[in-house]
Design a protein that fits this description.
The chain is an alpha+beta fold and 425 residues long. It has 5 helices and 12 strands. The strands form 2 sheets. Strands 1, 4, 5, 6, 7, 8, 9, 10, 11 and 12 form a 10-stranded antiparallel sheet that branches. It has a two-stranded antiparallel ribbon with strand order 2-3. α4 (147-233) packs antiparallel against α5 (239-274).
Length: 425
């Protein structure tokens, strides 16, 4: 019995050593193409389904973020519409006040002209009364039985003539002043009418854009639901069918998301044109400044071979701005004075970003920020700190993505900036 226990103990002690000493067979990886019905084929199918589900999950997350952005954009649109309505009401009241002033001046002008005509008529009557018989003042005096009366008559005529000339001169001056005031009011009213037309056009564009955004949001919601359904159904489908459905959903979602981003930029453009959020009017800035103090230019503007860059026009990948690198947390500066139009977050694109509107219809964008330090509607000066450099959103490392646009059209920022900074090659 003791021998048996000893043997068992010895075997129990040696067994782990034997297990450690014995080579563990390495599983043979499954080939990409395995016989149907084999374990490898099943494993390959499972891995493919898992990858498809991961893609669907990522697509769903991106679509949900864009859905949130669109909802925020619609809310902003509604806010801008209300602000434009207030400005329209104010403009209408101002136009009504100006018209009342114009009507009052017109009445004064008519009254002054009537007084001037009456005074001229009175002077003419006096003159005709004094000169209807004699040919000269000397004859009047000679024919008059009373020299004092003739002198009085002569004095009255001269006084009336002098008073008439003085009054006419004063009234002509008053008429000229009234006419100048009326001209200024007419110009102010015309400017208000032009402004009102722009506001009405901006309101109509925002309403149209709001309808488009609501339609896009409805399409996106439908695709989100379809993606969720496919995410649940993928496990029970073949990898080939799941991949085909996923690809179709991705194509549709990509188009919807691209449309949504275009609509956001269109909204920014309408806001700039209508002067919403304090957008500056007038000539474009004389010059833009570098948005960082000592940046390294890491990527330029234009067509790109990087797959992460979005398509633009005929190019499959296009960099719509320039990338500048400084240490994380470095201050990001407003490139020119303007008004902050948008402060947002796009985890699959710009990350933390903001858009500033400048005079002349130009806007600048600052993306991948660690933190934004301004709020929507705030007026900023050139070189004012508006954020901190980071690597948020679709970013491969800390940098600032900087854009300049005219409306929704991206422009090469290097054409607007002073001598370029040091490049990393």
């Amino acid at each position: 019995m003791r021998k048996s226990i000893f043997v068992l103990l010895a075997f129990g002690l040696l067994n782990p050593l034997l297990a450690q000493a014995a080579p563990v067979p390495t599983p043979t990886p499954c080939p990409s193409v395995a016989p149907q019905g084999s374990l490898c084929a099943a494993e390959n199918e499972k891995q493919a389904i898992d990858q498809i589900r991961a893609r669907l999950g990522n697509d769903l997350a991106q679509a949900l973020v864009v859905q949130q952005d669109l909802a925020q954009s619609l809310a902003s649109n509604d806010t801008q519409l209300r602000a434009l309505k207030v400005r329209l009401d104010t403009t209408t009241r101002q136009e009504s006040d100006l018209q009342a002033q114009i009507d009052g001046l017109s009445l004064k002008i008519d009254q002054s002209q009537a007084r001037l005509a009456a005074e001229r008529a009175q002077i003419a009557l006096l003159a005709r009364a004094g000169y209807r018989q004699p040919d000269s003042l000397l004859v009047v005096m000679a024919q008059s039985p009373n020299l004092a009366d003739s002198l009085t008559q002569l004095d009255d005529l001269m006084a009336a003539g002098s008073r008439g000339r003085t009054l006419e001169s004063q009234m002509q001056s008053d008429l000229a002043q009234l006419g100048s005031q009326k001209s200024n009011l007419d110009q102010a009213k015309a400017a208000l009418a032009t402004n009102q037309t722009a506001l009405e056009r901006g309101s109509a564009q925002l309403i149209d854009l709001q309808n488009q955004q609501q339609a896009t949001l409805a399409q996106l919601v439908t695709k989100i639901q379809a993606t969720k359904t496919q995410l649940d159904a993928a496990s029970s489908q073949s990898a080939a069918l799941a991949a085909q459905i996923t690809m179709l959903l991705e194509q549709q979602e990509t188009q919807i998301i691209a449309t949504a981003m275009e609509q956001v930029w269109e909204q920014v453009e309408v806001m700039v044109q209508s002067g919403a959020n304090g957008a500056a009017h007038g000539d474009a800035p004389q010059g833009f400044a570098w948005p960082e103090t000592a940046p390294v230019l890491t990527q330029g503007f234009g067509p790109s071979t990087l797959a992460l860059e979005p398509p633009y026009q005929q190019f499959p990948h296009f960099h719509t701005g320039i990338d500048l690198a400084e240490p994380v947390g470095s201050p990001v500066l407003a490139s020119a004075a303007g008004a902050v139009m948008v402060v947002g977050n796009d985890p699959f694109g710009y990350g933390n970003y903001l858009v500033i509107a400048h005079a002349g219809g130009l806007v600048s964008l600052y993306g991948h920020l660690q933190q934004t330090l301004v709020s929507q509607g705030q007026t900023v000066a050139q070189n004012q700190v508006v954020g901190l450099e980071g690597s948020s959103g679709n970013s491969t490392g800390p940098h600032l993505h900087f854009e300049i646009r005219s409306g929704s059209t991206p422009l090469d920022p290097l054409l607007y900036l002073p001598a370029r900074p040091t490049s990393n090659g």
